[in-house]
Specification:
By secondary structure, the protein is α/β, with parallel strands linked by helices. It is built from 11 helices and 11 strands.
Length: 343
Amino acid sequence: MRVEGVYISSVGVFLPRRVSAEDAVADGLYDEEVYKASGLTGTHVSDGIPALDMAVTAARQALERSGLDAEDIESHVHSGVYYQGPDGSYPPAYVLRELGVGQVPSLHIRQGCNGMLAAMEVAVGQMTGAAEVETALLTTAQNFATPLIDRWRGFGDSYILADGAAAAVLSSEDGFAEVRSVNSGTLPELEAWHRGDESLLPPQDGAGERLAVAERAARFNEREMSLAETVERIGAFDLDIVHRSLVDAGLNASDIARVIPINQDGRMIEFSVMAPLGLPMSRSSWDYGRSVGHVGAADLVISLDHLVRTGELAPGDHVLLLSQGPGWISSAGVVTIKEVPAW
């Protein structure tokens, strides 16, 4: 989807205290061999801060940086990977109430780590279509601090789960970055890769369920499709989404100054993204992302914020954003830096 007239006005980030992977190894929480091989150096852990409160903090920073007030927001899209509040509650409404935003449309996106680009795709439709939205707020947050999740091992060797939040304000008038394109797709034959063979019925024993995605994926690869075939299908599928976004933006891979993927083992990023595009790892955000941990859908905004603040992106630079989620879903977007924001 080619995009015109949509800009990123500002972004906001909240990260709680950092925990190093080296300390986690010493405490027996993380495997030393995995630590040395993956290159992941740490994560962030919340001390009793709900995901939604972190989202509110990130949103306040984004609003302050944009120079807008809460009443200027015309639409809100929120996403989360894990627990966002009790069943039956509506997380976006909590964020809006805490910010003091009025009675605007809101959506709750459930696309896992793909949530922020999915939210951007929805907001672009609102801003370029019949709704004629001029200013949209995107928020996402995760809190994995629960005995039901092993943040160091529960999602496999390629990820360390992190707590935190991010927000972005989109504008139809101006911003520090212009959205050039965004595309997404679903690979339904891999739906069971993250579901495993678990029942679709509501829980029957009333107890909380331990989230063990890596175990589900292993069972799928044993019974349904080999890991090699799964990775091959994902690679081809994701690259197709990337190429569509590059074409829609009128760019070649060589035009991309930086690639921002989700935070994971650098070998995965090089094998599935950078090498197929003919780009060196130095053009990815991995050197920073490896120290942050995987903050679900927030990774892309957190890395974009870092690259802009540290001067690693300059006006005219094209940035490729890429994320995935269970289902299998994948999104890619291209933004062009217009100016260095005051913040």
